[in-house]
Amino acid sequence: MQFRLEKRREPSKVMVYATPVAAVVLTMVVGAIIFSLIGYDGVGAVREIFLTPLTNSFKWQDLGVKAAPLIIIGVGLSISYRANVWNIGAEGQYIIGGLAATWVALATHGMTGWWILPTMFVAGMLGGAAYASIPALLKTRLNVNEILTSLMLTYASVQLIYYLVRAPWKDPMGMGFPQTRIFSEAARLPTLIPGTIVHLGVPIAIVVALIAWFIMSRSVFGYRMRVVGAAPHAARYGGFSENKTIWLALLVSGGLAGMAGMLEVAGPFQRMVPGFPTNYGFTAIIVAFLGRLNPLGVIFAGIVMAITFVGGEVAQTTIGLSSSATGVFQAMMLFFLLAGDILIRYRIKRVVPAAEVRA
Amino acid sequence: MSPELIIAIIVTVVGASTPILIAALGELVVERSGVLNLGVEGMMLVGAITAFVVVFLTGNHYLAILLAAAAGLGTSLIFGFLTLSLSANQTATGLALTIFGTGFSALAGQGYSARPVTLLGPLFPSELATHPIWRVLFGYSALVYFALIMVVAIWWFLKKTRAGLILRAVGENDLSAHSIGYSVIGVRYLAVMFGGAMAGIAGACFPLLLTPQWAERMTAGRGWIAVALVVFASWRPFRLLAGAYLFGLVMTMELYAKAGGGPLSVVPSELWAALPYLATVAVLVLISIRRDASTNAPACLGKPFLPSN
Amino acid sequence: MPYRLELTGITKRFPGVLANDNVTFAVKPGEIHALLGENGAGKSTLVKMIYGIMQPDAGEIRWDGQPVVVPNPKAARKLGIGMVFQHFSLFDALTVLENIALGMDAKIPSRELEARIREIMGRYGLLLDPHRTVATLSVGERQRIEIVRALLLDPKLLIMDEPTSVLTPQEVEQLFDVLRKLAAQGCSILYISHKLHEIKALCDTATILRGGKLVDTCDPRQETSRSLAEKMIGAGLKDIVRGEGRTLGLPKLVVSRLSTVKTGHFDVPVDNVSFTVRAGEIFGIAGVAGNGQNALLDAMSGEVRGGDKDAITLDGFPLGLLDTTGRRKRGLCAVPEERNGHAAVGDFTLSDNSVLTARDRLGMVMMGLISSGAARTYTGKVIADFAVKALGPGSTAGSLSGGNLQKYIMGREILQKPSVLVVSQPTWGVDAGAAAAIHQALVDLAAAGSAIVVISQDLDELRALCDTLAVINMGRLSPARPTEEMSVEEIGLLMGGVHGATEVHDAVPA
User: Fold this and answer.
1) Residue B233 and residue B158: Cα distance in Å, rounded?
2) What is the reported pLDDT for C348?
3) Which residues are registered as beta bridge partners of C159?
4) Chain A interface includes C396 (CB < 8 A)
5) Does A353 touch chain C (CB under 8 A)?
6) I need a labelling partner for C143 at 20 to 30 A (CA). Which of B105, B183, B192, B242 fits?
7) Whole-number percent of chain C with pLDDT over 70
8) Does B168 touch chain C (CB under 8 A)?
9) Yes or no: is domain A2-358 CATH 3.40.30?
10) CA atoms within 13 A on the CB side of A217
11) How far apart are CA A268 and CA A247, in angstroms?
12) β-sheet bridge partners, residue C333
């Protein structure tokens, strides 16, 4: 018996939504098998990574706090990828956003006032957008590949943190630790629910995703992104300039990554440290794809990815599994998703060998 | 500068550029066949951890290189299956491969960090390399000579052989190649596997040639620089050689600056560490200003092949 | 003597279509055999099975009397089957010699191969420089590479898939000479076309396909063009209905000294083009593909803008500096040649495709938001008025057949009632019914007072449709003249232009 792929007349809407769910389930099943085969407690790993964060209500606040930056960055990337603009330097834009907010926090250190946090918020977005404008400029003016430039700038931005926290921004009272002083009260994000670590960034992430969903599905801006990504030539014919779209895609995704950077530094971190880059910018790439480049899907995907992060920490303490296993699970999920993409346009058909037909 | 220092610098430059050169040569062949595999960094990490574990357990460097190549090839098959058999998006799959390689190597390497191994020694007997000048020619390990031989071999393959012509044809116009009767998918699978093996060997250079230990993400973006170098070299092997040595020089300057002393330490060491990445951006800008650069790109690069059946 | 090629009961099924249904015919040695049919009749599928690119679901192929299976093109070439593709299977970045080497199954040293190429070129009068890069060659020269490549294998059957669609009438004559020489030496030729006069001039036998089924096998020289056409289409031909006593109005579209910049490596720019189209006039621009038609359309639509505001004016208003959106608002709409990916987005619904070009003229946008209801209503109207076969406004453009998508695109532009409509290849690859509907819609739009520019390679179409004709060659436009004053020969010479004459002298003698 053989199987053959047969092109569908219309792309399957069911598969668009079914494949991400299938990818998560398959990752759990296949992950358990593979981890068992290579000598780990496979079932335990899957249980701890995927289920414990959901069943243990103490972990829910962690989920929210981890999902928020992933959703915010993922929304930006989903908009950018829709337009076929491959910003993979969100981690760098997140860092620069965090640094810009830190700069405001340090400059206003000791001051009070409601305006400090909004200023940091704007600074973070501007910082991220400004950093993303470098690949945009190079892409539109010189046709330099944005994948490579945005990624290289990420590596450079990590060094910028190291430099700043080791020299000019170093906390004088920090006993030699390379970190800034802790932010003043007015520069810290308030927690929403007393007694938890849930901060303002969590509802902001949901609002950002909802606004983005509305804009992408209903507005000319969203149409522009979709048409430039689907058929650049047709977009030009329809009156949408490709260069302007590249700028918009990078500024929006960079600005949102910068926003996430600000929320992280003013929320969980409350100071700038060398460990600030936590790979949210890279993980958000998986989030964007798993969410089918749809802002509502990104909420779902961001939560799934947060589960694996929180679960990875759980597995580390309970069954001694390295936290890097999380990365393997996340990559597997993306593999399954990409493999499933073909089912949107094709269906699998059983091929009856010719001999059987004649018989 | 004393002649000894200059020679020491040359030797360091050649060593530092070797992994980039090997990885970029593999990617060059892959891209010439019309496939863009952005997973070089991930395949290198898989190669690096494989080589480290093998040499740690057996002490056999050549076995380590061989198995690193096999590991890189195996990893590239994931990419090949998704993009060639299932025509998944190449950009996304390449990114996924890098994420996978990073996670996998970290997982496989836990417990191995801070354990030393021995570096791969020079290929030729040390009597040949006693004089400083001879050291420049004969003082390297086999991996360095391998990289140089591959530059010539790949140039010859692409330019002079029928198989190379077919590979270029497939990258230039997959539909035509298919209609004449060549197996586009088959050729691309072979190219992707070759690229994977080369990336695996490139990864092996890190524990065997540069720092004799395992560290998570020890390739530090060199795989991405290799991808950029292929663009910089306009898909030509000898230009790749020049580009790789240029980057070796930049990275060597970082090492000397970090070692302290001399005029290089005036600038903060973080800037030196950022320099290879900034230099990559600069190089991409420079190559784009020359307008003919992109015309040499394989016409089907990155586009999935979908024969109408 | 056995037949060279015999097909019995060949059937090939695709999802939702029966591409070939029980097709049976035979080709004699030395015969020039036409395979005639509309676009979509199943001709290409049939020859792909003969050449081994596809496998039949049922039926038998016999070669020189023996039943054979042709698993791949290599096996076909081994049998002695050569093929020249409609869309050339050439590699632009490689040289002529490298291209030919790729088509050879045996490895031949390049010096020997070159000698054989020169010998073949000499024998058939095909002039080419083996060391030139394909990208620098004209369409006619590219076809010669394909022919030389096929002839090097000493074929006993040569399949030619729509070989003349890109040639000037004079080049067509040269090609026919080569084919007749070949046939005289015993090589059979399977000649695929939908051009009736060519088949009458060249072929000994014609097999006619319609909707995948064999309709008739006949001697084309005994048939009239009209009878062949009716067999091919299966119904009486509809003529274009024109209103009585038409008069052309005032100049509406004035193009003066329009030039474009060469952008791509292989781009042919427009050079100092001027013409005037009056209200109610259909203005035709003939020419061989690749002579600046794309640049002209892009410059007219506004996709590529020049620096001269007066280069294009509509009712005296300068459009030269406006972008596509600005020009559409002023009443100039355009339809490019490439349907899927340029005029429409295959992955988008028809509704979304209407937003692409009709959003401003039809008020589909309010404060930056798209009214999907308005888009759906308009799309429904296009589907109804132009008899587009689609499930509804929610179907994706990619799911439509070529002819239906073209009807939708033309309808989308025409129902916006543009003052000026510029279309390129309005009926390329479209079946006769759809083509007739599109032609009628263009005539009706002109009758309502619009000025229309039709850019086409199809001389029959232009001569039937247009009031005025001009010819584009190497980016330059010939003076416009009334259609009835221009003969086919004259148009053919203009299409070949200065370019066609020098090309032969420039080439290296074989």
Assistant:
1) 15
2) 94
3) C83, C190
4) yes
5) no
6) B183
7) 94
8) yes
9) no
10) 11
11) 31
12) C421
Contacts of B284 in chain A (CB under 8 A): 138, 144-145, 148-149
Indicate the pTM of the whole model: 0.87
pLDDT at B217 over 60: yes
Would you say A290 and A307 are in contact if contact means Cβ atoms under 8 Å apart? no
Cα angle A219-A222-A223, degrees, rounded to a multiple of 5? 85
| Domain span including residue B106 | 3-296
Residue A339 CA to residue A347 CA, distance in Å, equals: 13
B199 in a structural domain: yes
Kindly indicate the confidence band of residue C504, based on its pLDDT and cuts at 50, 70 and 90. Answer: very low
Q: How many CA atoms lie within 13 A of C31 on its CB side?
A: 19
Residues C304 and C347: beta-carbon distance below 8 Å: no
Please compute the mean of the pLDDT values over residues C84-99 and round it to a whole number: 84
Among B30, B8, B2, B6, smallest CA distance to B301 is for B30
Give the sheet arrangement for strand C273-278, strand by strand: C273-278, C251-258, C312-314, C317-318
| d(C-alpha A79, C-alpha A222), whole Å | 8
Of B81, B96, B273, the CB nearest to A331: B96
Nearest chain C CA: its distance from B301 CA (Å): 14
Percentage, residues of chain B above pLDDT 90: 50
Query: Strand, coil or helix: what is C419?
Result: coil
- Let me know: does C503 contact C291? Beta carbons within 8 Å: no
Answer yes or no: do B309 and C54 touch at CB < 8 A: yes
**SS3 sequence, C462-486?**
HHHHCCEEEEEECCEECCCEEHHHC
What is the spatial distance between Cα B167 and Cα C451, in angstroms, rounded to a whole number?
Answer: 50
Secondary structure of residue A261 in the 3-state scheme: helix
CB contact under 8 A, A142 and B277: no
Neighbouring residues of C11: CB distance < 8 A, sequence distance ≥ 6: C18, C20, C21, C22, C23, C56, C57, C58, C59
What is the 3-state secondary structure of C172-211?
HHHHHHHHHHHHHCCCEEEEEECCHHHHHHHCCEEEEEEC
What is the dihedral angle through the alpha carbons of A142, A148, A150, A152, rounded to the nearest 10 degrees? Answer: -120
Give me B104's structure tokens: 């996998």
Q: What is the pLDDT of residues A229-288, one digit of tens each?
A: 999 999 999 999 999 999 999 999 999 999 999 999 999 999 999 999 988 999 999 999
- Which residues in C91-204 belong to E strands, given as ranges? 157-161, 188-193
- Look at chain B and report how many structural domains it folds into: 1
One-letter amino acid of C484? E
Q: What is the pLDDT of residues A93-144, one digit of tens each?
A: 999 999 999 999 999 988 888 999 999 999 999 999 999 999 999 999 998 9
Parallel/antiparallel/unpaired status of strands C205-210 and C188-193? unpaired
B99·A334 Cβ contact <8 A: yes
**Euclidean distance between CA atoms B146 and B148, whole angstroms:** 5
Contact across the interface for A153 and B221, Cβ inside 8 Å? no
Interface predicted TM-score of the whole assembly (ipTM), two decimals: 0.88
Residue A2: per-residue pLDDT: 64
For chain C, domains (ranges, CATH) are 5-233 (3.40.50.300), 251-498 (3.40.50.300)
The CATH number given to whatever domain includes residue B266 is 1.10.3470
User: Rounded mean pLDDT of C131-158?
Assistant: 86
CA distance C264 to C496: 23
| Residue C505 pLDDT > 60 | no
B295 contact C CB<8A: yes
Write out the residues of chain C at the interface with chain B, using a CB-CB cutoff of 8 A. 52-54, 72-74, 77, 85, 87-94, 98, 101-103, 107, 265
* Chain A CB within 8 Å of residue B281 CB: yes
List of chain A residues whose C-beta atoms are within 8 Å of the C-beta of residue C294: none
What is the rounded distance in angstroms from the CA atom of residue A63 to the CA atom of residue A303? 7
The answer as to whether B154 is a domain residue is yes
